[in-house]
Design goal:
Blueprint (H helix, E strand, L loop, with lengths): L4 E6 L4 E14 L2 E6 L5 E5 L2 E7 L4 E6 L3 E6 L2 E6 L4
Parallel strand pairs: 1-8
Antiparallel strand pairs: 1-2, 2-3, 2-5, 4-7, 5-6, 7-8
């Protein structure tokens, strides 16, 4: 079984995605960043680009960040706070 962690992807209007995942790749301000289970704590500013979430079954879900946002990782959990997602 793969190591999983929790993620929440939210905008001011709604929760876009919430669940257990294997990894997330986000467009950080200075390049793409991948987060796996048990990642060290961090906060990163995000830029427009593609967000790739690999769920617990190994399937990829793609989101397009249209504005900016932040990624917070702590205690085997990630939160993406985003302006707008398509």
């Amino acid at each position: 079984m793969a190591n999983l962690f929790n993620i929440s992807i939210v905008t001011p209007e709604k929760i876009i995605y919430h669940g257990e995942i294997r990894s997330v790749i986000v467009p950080a301000k200075f390049g793409y960043l991948e987060v796996l289970a048990h990642h060290a704590a961090l906060i990163a500013q995000l830029a427009p680009g593609k967000i790739t979430v690999q769920d617990g079954n190994g399937e990829n879900k793609l989101f397009s960040l249209k504005g900016s946002g932040f990624l917070q990782v702590a205690h085997n959990s990630a939160k993406l706070l985003l302006d707008a997602v398509a």
